[in-house]
Specification:
Length: about 290
C-alpha cells in the first residue's frame, strides 16, 4: 500500500553531487528523485544549513539555494524548503524562498538563540524572529536548540515541532534527543516529533541501530503523547552511516513494513507516515 510519506528533513541540497545526480539517480545520494517516486514519498523537506561550513558559508548557501531552485518545480514529489539555523539572515543573505519550517540555530550560538553545546538563552532578536516566522506561516523547529533556548521558545505559546529528534529516554547518548517533558510540551502545542534515522540518536551504541530502533522511538513517543505527535525526519544525506537495513529513500518500504509487522493500524501508519506533518503544516492532502 502506498502510504504517502512525508519526510520532514534531509540534507541533500548541500551534497556536492546533488545538482548532477538528484534527478537522474544512481549516485551515492541517500535521496534522489527515482528513489522518492518509487517509495511513495509525496513530500520531502530539504534543508539548507551553512553553519558547519566555516569560511564557505556563502558558497554553500548559493549551492543549496541553487539546487532547490532547480528542483522545486518538479510535479512530484512536493519539495519544501527548510532553513536550518538562521545564520544566513544574520549574515545578510537573501532568502529567496519562503521556508516551510525554520530552526533559529544549528549547533552553538548565533544572534537569535543558543544551540546544542551552548548555555545561551533565546535572545530578544530570536523572540522577534520567531514571532515573524509564526505570523508568516513558517513553523518553528527546536531540533538544534539547547534546553534553555528550547524551553524559552516553548513558553512563547506558538506551535513548534522537532523535525529530526528522538526520545532521550531510549537513547541518552546524544544531546539533541528530547526529554519526556519537552516531548509532551511540543505535542501539547500541536507539534510533531520527526524520528531521525541517525544511528547515534537511536541507540547508545549507534552500530546496533536498526529499523526496529526507529519503530521503538516512534512507539515510545506515541504512547507518551498520542499517535498524532509522531512522524519521520530521516536526516538522509546528513549522515554517512545509516541503521542496519536502510540505504536511503529507497528503503521506505522496509520502514513502513516494520510498522505493519508491529501491528500498527492502517490509520495510525498513515498518520505517522505523513498525515501528521501535513496537518501540522496545514497542507492540502493530495490524492
Amino acid at each position: 500500500m502506498n502510504r504517502r510519506i512525508f519526510d520532514a528533513h534531509c540534507d541533500t541540497l548541500l551534497q556536492s553531487s546533488a545538482e548532477k545526480d538528484f534527478v537522474s539517480g544512481g549516485s551515492e545520494l541517500h535521496v534522489d528523485l527515482p528513489s522518492l517516486l518509487k517509495s511513495g514519498v509525496h513530500d520531502q523537506v530539504m534543508a539548507v544549513c551553512i553553519k558547519p561550513y566555516i569560511g564557505s558559508e556563502r558558497e554553500m548557501w548559493q549551492r543549496g539555494i541553487g539546487n532547490y531552485a532547480e528542483f522545486r518545480n518538479l510535479k512530484k514529489p512536493r519539495l519544501h524548503f527548510a532553513l536550518e539555523g538562521c545564520l544566513p539572515l544574520a549574515m545578510g543573505f537573501e532568502l529567496p524562498f519562503h521556508p516551510v519550517v525554520a530552526s533559529l540555530t544549528w549547533n552553538g550560538d548565533n544572534p537569535y538563540a543558543g544551540g546544542i553545546g551552548s548555555e545561551m538563552d533565546l535572545t530578544d532578536l530570536g523572540r522577534e524572529l520567531a514571532e515573524k516566522f509564526d505570523a508568516s506561516g513558517t513553523m518553528l523547529d527546536v531540533s538544534h536548540l539547547n534546553r534553555r533556548s528550547r524551553k524559552s521558545l516553548l513558553k512563547m505559546d506558538i506551535p513548534v515541532c522537532a523535525t529530526h529528534c528522538n526520545a532521550q529516554r531510549l537513547c541518552n547518548g546524544h544531546a539533541r534527543n528530547l526529554p519526556d517533558e519537552d516531548i509532551k510540551e511540543i505535542a501539547a502545542s500541536g507539534g510533531v516529533i520527526g524520528i531521525t534515522f541517525v544511528p547515534d540518536f537511536l541507540e547508545e551504541d549507534g552500530s546496533k541501530a536498526t529499523i526496529t530502533s526507529i519503530i521503538n522511538h516512534m512507539e515510545y513517543i506515541a504512547e507518551l503523547t498520542s499517535i498524532d505527535s509522531v512522524g519521520f525526519g530521516s536526516d538522509f544525506d546528513g549522515v554517512k552511516k545509516l541503521p542496519e537495513g536502510l540505504s536511503g529513500a529507497g528503503s521506505w518500504f522496509s520502514v513502513i513494513g516494520a510498522l505493519e509487522s508491529r501491528g500498527w493500524s492502517n490509520s495510525d501508519i498513515d498518520k505517522a507516515a505523513g498525515n501528521n506533518w501535513r496537518r501540522f503544516f496545514k497542507m492540502h492532502k493530495e490524492s
